[in-house]
Every structure is written in structure tokens, then in C-alpha cells.
Amino acid sequence: MFDLQDWINYQPGSQIVVPEASIAVPVERQPPDLGWTCIDVEDLGADGSDYIPGVCEKCGNDVLRFLHTLEHPDWPEQMVVGCICASRMCEGYDGRGRETELKNLAIRRSRWLTRNWRESRKGNEFLNLKGYNLGVFPDSRHPGKWNWWIIKGNYKRYGDGPYPSSDYAKMRLFDYLTKPASTPSA
Ligand SMILES: [Zn+2]
Predict the structure, then answer these.
(1) Ligand 1 centroid to 68 CA: how many Å?
(2) Fewest CB within a 10 Å sphere: which of 75, 105, 143, 176?
(3) Could you tell me the distance, in angstroms and rounded to a whole number, from the CA of residue 34 to the centre of ligand 1?
(4) Separation between Cα atoms, residue 178 and residue 186, nearest integer Å
(5) Average pLDDT, stretch 75-91?
């Protein structure tokens, strides 16, 4: 740091020395190789449409469909990597198995709208699935909009609609059913 006294005592022609520490370049740290935990996997192809492939921040592989997000207790930032790097950096993590699960989920998602939806007496489309009664209905408070329901015994839940169409409400219902820690499974 500059010494204030140097400035107070400054005389034209005298020299102020800048201490070396203030101009030193900080040493660049490298992220650790091991000890990471995978906290999320994203399937860029989940909805079946074209997608821009992801890039692995570790090895540069740039044709990724699945992005594994990793955290490390000694590193301030998350890293987004491919399956092979994720499995190596997170000891015991089965990246390939997780991708297979998500691929199967994407296939089930693509077939969700063409399942055998039936029509209730009120005219709403529904499915009975693993003891649950699921369906979509026009939202009376928002004309032209839709929402979904899940009922099993005393358990009853509605979606966070309104949604713009019945198909959209059905897809949101699927996502609710298949998100981790949700009750029934589609
Ligand atoms: Zn990689």
C-alpha cells in the first residue's frame, strides 16, 4: 500500500516506491480432481426436440446430452461435466446409470399424452394409475386455462396452474409425478 506520509512529504522530483506485493499476480488455483458430489443431472434432450449439445468443463467434450452438476467442499464454484468425468470425479457415482434412468424417463414422458386417457362424467380426461386418480380440468377461475389433480383416498392435490392447454397441464402433471421425492410414480 502507499504510505500516506509519502504523499504528505512529496517533493517534486522525489520518487514514490510501489511495494511489490500490491502488483503481484495471484496464483491461479486448479479445481480438485476428486472428492466431488453430483447434485443434479440435466437431460438436454428430455422433451424430444433438437438441443444444443453441452460442453464438459473438465475435458471439453462438446457433444453432451446430459449435464452433471458437481459440488466440492473446497471449491467455490460448481462444475458442469459429462458422464465420464462425473463418474471419475465423484467416487462411487454411477453417471451412466443415472443417464439410463433419465433416458427411460424421457421415453415415458414422450408417451404420456398418448396414454389411454379416459373421460369422466364431468367431461374431464383422467387416468387411474397405481391407485391414484389423476386428471386435468378447465380452471373455472381462469377461462380457457387448465389445471391438474391427483386424488388417492383423502389425499388430494392440485397443480400450480393455470396452464395454457390441457396437454400442457398433463405434462406438468407428469413432471410433478416423476420429480424426485414426489408421491406416486408415473
Ligand atoms: Zn469430461
Answers:
(1) 10
(2) 143
(3) 13
(4) 6
(5) 97
